[in-house]
Specification:
256 residues; 3-stranded antiparallel beta sheet; Rossmann fold; 6-stranded parallel beta sheet; 9 strands; SIR2/SIRT2 'Small Domain'
Amino acid sequence: MPSITSLLDQAATACAKARKGIALTGAGISVESGIPPFRGKGGLWEKIDPMKYAHIDALERDPAEVWKVLFLGIGELLGTAAPNDGHKELRRLEELGVLQTIITQNVDGLHQKAGSRDVIEFHGTHAVLRCMTCQRRYEWQEITITEIPPRCPCNGYLRPDVVMFGELIDMSLLQRSQMLASQCDLMFVVGTSATVEPAAYLPVIAKRAGAFIIEINPEPTPLTHHISDVTLLGPAGEVLTQLTERVARLRPMPQG
């Protein structure tokens, strides 16, 4: 079995050659920022029934209850969360010319806080509130919550601009993500087992198009032995820091 050093070197060499790199990220990259995942051990869905509180039917039936049980807690958590080394190193890979776009399944906005410029938010963002009646959008900081649920001036209820169970993702985002996956020559898969559709199919599209797949996860996933060219096991921040240091030696920062 190859050593972590040889795997890092192999991944760094692929990064140094890349011209169209993209990243697919999931909840695992934000765990180091203190944000628990939704699924899996220790995830939010172990404490809260998603069908009872995270389904669009529940929101429409009893918005106040969904706000109290789900939205307020997540809003407070995300309001204080800061990007970790994983987010920052992806931004650095962008500065080095390796990465062009990040496709994230997260709703925490931490890639943008880290400075990444082109982020496709597959499942929306918790940083923005949207009126359920007139569709007007507000930054979370713009709203002073004096009643639950908060209301828009049109008197409609506000909700986070996220994709809930029972809702479809934005097809334009899916189509752009699929196009990027089909055209990239390098794909990072970070902090996700890539088992939830439709994001799960993006590494398959990239692989079939000839892209080099670098997986960074704490443990092996279904991608590890079938799709990934290199799998780097460990915390995203730690692994990406080691990798980016190697890439920087092979591929100096672009001038200008």
